[in-house]
UniProtKB/TrEMBL annotation:
Pfam families: LMWPc. InterPro entries: Ptyr_pPase (IPR023485), Ptyr_pPase_sf (IPR036196). It comes from Clostridium folliculivorans. Residues 108-135 form a coiled coil. Residues 3-128 form the Phosphotyrosine protein phosphatase I domain. The keyword RNA-binding does not apply. Keywords: Arsenical resistance, Coiled coil. This is ArsC family transcriptional regulator. The gene is arsc. SMART domains: LMWPc. The keyword Coiled coil applies. GO terms for biological process: response to arsenic-containing substance.
Length: 142
């Protein structure tokens, strides 16, 4: 069974959505990707949608929407995008913070930089899961 990974931030409209799209594109053979936040947005950040379409030919408007933490299944791994405020909490067996700046309202270059950073981190996470560098055994087991 593939582990489930949740990419989370407060608004679930930009970085976490990009991570969900890129997780599905580059790592669906190793883990399932979800994204969520603590507040819903009526639509995904349209700059993020445009950049992901330009770079990867994925249309997030077609395949994804803003979701709350309660809208996604129980997950094994939580990846916080870098909140600078109180990050949402979701129970998991492994958690990490990617500390990415929010490109919202900034130039296309910032969005491209963020997308490329997420792509690298997704591929690295895939490698670490494949190599069993992340412990996903149930808590309490020895």
């Amino acid at each position: 069974m593939k582990p489930k990974v949740a990419f989370i931030c407060v608004h679930n409209s930009c970085r976490s959505q990009m991570a969900e799209a890129l997780g599905k594109m580059f790592a669906s053979d190793v883990f399932e990707s979800y994204s969520a936040g603590t507040e819903l947005r009526p639509q995904i950040n349209q700059d993020a949608v445009r950049i992901i379409k330009d770079l990867y030919n994925i249309d997030m408007n077609e395949t994804q929407k803003s979701k709350l933490l309660t809208d996604i299944p129980e997950v094994d791994i939580v990846v916080k995008m870098g909140c600078n405020v109180i990050c949402p909490f979701l129970p998991s067996k492994h958690e990490e913070d990617w500390g990415l700046d929010d490109p919202s309202g900034k130039s296309d270059e910032e969005f491209i930089k963020t997308a490329k950073a997420i792509e690298e981190k997704v591929k690295d996470l895939k490698r670490r899961i494949k190599n069993n560098e992340i412990s996903l055994s149930a808590i309490g087991e020895i």
